[in-house]
Amino acid sequence: MNSAKFRRLGHLAAGVAMAGLVACGPDIAPYEPPPPESEVYAEAPAPDEAGAELHEDDDHDAHDEHGEGHAGEVHEHGAAEMAVTREEDFLTLTLDAPLANFGLSEDKPPRGTKAEDFAEGIAEPLGPTKCEETERSVTSRSHDGHGNMTISVVWRCKKIERIEGLRLNVFTLFPGFEHVDAIYLGPDGTQAADELTAAHTDLDFD
Ligand SMILES: [Zn+2]
Fold this sequence. Notes:
Layout: H1 3-19, E1 38-40, H2 47-50, E2 74-76, E3 79-87, E4 90-98, H3 112-116, E5 123-126, E6 131-143, E7 146-157, E8 165-168, H4 170-173, E9 179-185, E10 191-196, E11 202-204
Parallel strand pairs: 3-9
Antiparallel strand pairs: 1-2, 3-4, 4-7, 5-8, 6-7, 8-11, 9-10
Bound molecules: zinc ion.
C-alpha cells in the first residue's frame, strides 16, 4: 500500500473520531441512468487544506456539497476501504464502500434501522478475550448516480491488548465485495495495513 493511500485511509479513521460517527449527512440524488462500472470521484482538496470556500457552483450542484470529508475518494465497485482504530478499551471499525457492493441500488440509499442491518456481523475482533458491540452507525450518500455507505461499529473489549486482529466477513455476506484496503491504527503509533479479499479476510494488528 502506498503512503498516499495510507494517509487517505487515516483520514477515514480521523473523520469518524472527529465527527462522532456521523461523517456525512444522508443525501438522495435524482435518478440518472446507470453509470459505468467504475468511476473516480473528482479530486478536490479537503476543506481544511484548501481554505473556506471551494463551492462556486452551489446553485446548480447543491447535492454534491456533502462531499466534505470524502474529498478525492475512489469509487470503484467491488472495492472498499476500512480503518480500525484502538483507543482505551474500544475498537472502532469504519468501512466505506459503494452501495453496489451490498447489492443495493446506488441512487436509493437505505435508511434507519434497515441501513443498520447491513452492519450486522460484518467483522469480528480476533484474540483470546471478550468484546461486545457497543455502537453501530450507518450513513449513505449519493453522487451523480453513484452511492457509498459508511459503516461504523464500536466494540468494548475486556483485555484489549489481547486483540490480535480483525476478521472481515463482508466477502461472504455480500459477494459484491472483492478487495478492501485496510489499515489499523493502534496505541503509541502502532500501524498495520493490508489488502483483504475473500481468500484473506483477517487484518493482523502487528
Ligand atoms: Zn457506483
